[in-house]
């Protein structure tokens, strides 16, 4: 089947491209600024803030499923509004959407464990934007799934991994998030 991976040039997205291809799927991957060195069947440039091009990228790819692995950090238009636009476009077509979210929708205060029924209580602009995206997506797309992940460990060079090392070393206060 054809899988459209939004943010396919990113840290998680490029691994999703690799694994989807290895499983025999056709992959269409998007980038915002530049494709990376993973090799999907096709690259498409996509800015989630551009609702028109969003529609045409999904129409051209005709995916069986869309995975949103994009990240715009604390940028509200990219991280909160863009994914809701994507949900509107995919819902209109009846295309399932998997939206990757984060444990940063939670404050971490009061409990070490969260289940799906727990309401978000973000304490950062990034967490707030991700929580807003989740709420909007689930409101407009009946077939959408939100998958919250924590730190994704990989080759050590991802933005998140470097941030965690910098926070541990005390060389940043994490203000970007
Ligand atoms: N990495 C982690 O440890 C971690 C932890 C928890 C949750 N997550 C979640 O996992 C997902 C992937 O994270 P990641 O670390 O793999 O992100 P990443 O490496 O920063 O990749 C971000 C992707 O989003 C694309 N992008 C940026 N601006 C965009 C825009 N305006 N429109 C469309 N696409 C845009 C980028 O394209 P260009 O490369 O061309 O700019 C890139 O493909 C995110 O939803 C994040 O919240 C990640």
Give me some keywords for this one:
177 residues; alpha/beta; Rossmann fold; 6-stranded parallel beta sheet; 5 helices; 6 strands; 18% strand; binds NADP nicotinamide-adenine-dinucleotide phosphate
Description:
The chain contains 5 helices and 6 strands, in the order βαββαβαβαβα. Strands 3-2-1-4-5-6 form a 6-stranded parallel beta sheet, with helices on both faces. The model has no long low-confidence stretch (mean pLDDT 94). It has helices at residues 11-22, 51-61, 76-93, 125-140, 159-169; strands at 2-6, 26-31, 42-45, 65-68, 97-102, 144-149. By secondary structure, it is an alpha/beta fold. The chain has a single domain (2-169), classed as Rossmann fold. The structure holds NADP nicotinamide-adenine-dinucleotide phosphate. NADP nicotinamide-adenine-dinucleotide phosphate (NAP) binds at residues 7, 9-13, 31-34, 46-49, 69-72, 78, 82, 100, 102, 130, 149-152, 158-160.
Distance between the termini: 36 Å
Strand order of the largest sheet: 3-2-1-4-5-6
How much of the residues is beta strand, in percent? 15-25%
Distinct ligand kinds:
NADP nicotinamide-adenine-dinucleotide phosphate
- Gross CATH architecture: 3-Layer(aba) Sandwich
Total strands: the figure is: 6
The mean pLDDT is 94
Class inferred from helices and paired strands? alpha/beta
Please mark out the parts with pLDDT under 50 across 5 or more consecutive residues, or reply none.
none
Task: Please bin the fraction of helical residues.
Answer: 25-40%
Radius of gyration: 16 Å
Strand and helix order: EHEEHEHEHEH
Q: Mind describing the biggest β-sheet? A: 6 strands, parallel
